[in-house]
Design brief:
The protein has two domains: about 80 residues, Rossmann fold (3-Layer(aba) Sandwich), CATH 3.40.50; about 150 residues, Signal recognition particle, SRP54 subunit, M-domain (434 Repressor (Amino-terminal Domain), Orthogonal Bundle), CATH 1.10.260.30. It is built from 14 helices and four strands. The protein has a four-stranded mixed β-sheet with strand order 1-2-3-4, covered by helices on one side. Helix 2 packs parallel to helix 3 and helix 7 packs antiparallel against helix 10.
Length: about 240
């Protein structure tokens, strides 16, 4: 590493740390810094459950600051480090500032209306439009983690975090095969309707049941959000910025 550093003589030397590394970060950063001298730190995998607290140990050991954070696998998931957003995530307070920026970048201020979902009663039509809007912003798991559910006393169901692009497409095909009445009132969807919807969408009956389960999970989560009314009002106010 020393020889490469001497041969290339780079202007910047970044230490890339996994967000889940924990206290080992200090030891690793110290060794790297002694070898080549660190000018900045990049914290990756912040789209997972790890919050990146170990990066603070690396800062302490080297005196270098965090330059970028990685929140996914795409090139545009490498973001410039924002101290306020990072500390908010670290404390479980979400990252509303970062989320609002994503809304603006995707030009969704008019298309996505969170207050409609946060009223508690939602339909499959709401699910359809909101998933379409959020899909433009990147992985849904990443989006949900930017919301301050922790400070509202709401736990994000695993089903909401495991949505993939493939599942979103499948859900879209399924909902395209439903009638207006079914989209407005999913409770009427019985076994025979499930069979018809699966056949019309080119999916399986299990896929249709999975979507209905997701709908029930989402509906329950939205009702939970209504419980923290004070925090909910603050959240909605932030979205209107």
């Amino acid at each position: 590493l020393k020889k490469i550093n001497e041969a290339v003589n780079p202007d910047h030397k970044f230490l890339v740390l996994d967000a889940a590394i924990g206290q080992l970060a200090k030891e690793q950063a110290d060794a790297f810094h002694r070898a080549v001298g660190i000018t900045g730190i990049i914290v990756t995998k912040l789209d997972g459950t790890a919050k990146g607290g170990g990066a603070l140990s690396a800062i302490s050991a080297t005196g270098a600051s965090i330059a970028f954070i990685g929140t996914g696998e795409r090139v545009d998931d490498l973001e410039r480090f924002e101290p306020d957003s990072f500390i908010s995530r670290l404390l479980g307070m979400g990252d509303l500032k970062g989320l609002i920026e994503k809304f603006k970048e995707a030009e969704l201020e008019e298309e996505f209306k969170p207050e409609e979902m946060l009223k508690g009663k939602i339909t499959l039509k709401d699910i359809y439009s909101q998933l379409e809007a959020m899909k433009k912003m990147g992985p849904l798991k990443q989006i949900f983690q930017m919301l301050p559910f922790g400070t509202m006393g709401v736990e994000i169901p695993e089903e909401m975090l495991q949505l993939t692009e493939e599942k979103l497409k499948k859900y879209k095909y399924i909902m395209d095969s439903m009638t207006e009445e079914e989209l407005e009132n999913p409770r009427i969807i019985n076994a025979s309707r499930i069979k018809r919807i699966a056949r019309g969408s080119g999916t399986t009956q299990e896929d249709v049941k999975e979507l209905l389960k997701y709908y029930r999970t989402m509906s329950k989560a939205m009702k939970s959000l209504r419980g923290g009314r004070g925090n909910l009002k603050k959240l909605m106010k932030q979205f209107r910025i």
